[in-house]
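Hey,
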Amino acid sequence: MDRPTATTGHTVTTCVLLLFVLISLFCSFVIFGAEHISRSTWWAVLLVVLMVLLMGALVFVILQQPENPKKLPYMAPCVPFVPAFAMLVNIYLMLKLSSITWIRFAVWCFVGLLIYFGYGMWNSTLEVTARQEEAHASTYQRYDTGVDDSFAMDEDLYPQDDGSQYQGWNAPEERGYQYQQQPAADELDHNRASQGRRPKSKGKANKGFEALVADDDMDYSPE
């Protein structure tokens, strides 16, 4: 097995957690049970040897797992020996601190977390920038939404090369020309007929007007 898998990653994670618990127990027993170790009590010595063997077994299991072949800018040297030794030293130094130091540490951690989650997280430059970008993205409207891109040309628009004369576009134009010629001829005949009847109607109108004028002259003639 040359490359890491999900199983090997899970195995390493489990071993690291168990190693952290064992190192914490080992350092606690060495610091707070130093009196029993100094008197060489059999159960104390047996417990220390057992924890050391278990830690060694976990380190060996981690060592057998394949490493990631990808080269990173920074990689811990001598894995897993240097990380395990760093865990051992740091936990030992932390357990050597006094109680008042742990109380101060807890108080200042609570104050820092309160400031961070109450003010810093909501007013940081990164958070404000992310909100502005999100607001800008939400107000951006795409004008091509709902447009059907699957446009296909209709095959009926193109003439079929089957030897026959294509009547798709020219036929309506020719029919329209004939239809336009027929109403124009009818309108011309109607105008000629109306012009032929116009003099008669004009004469009748003139005679009627002269009769009215004569009647008026008779009504207003002096006696």
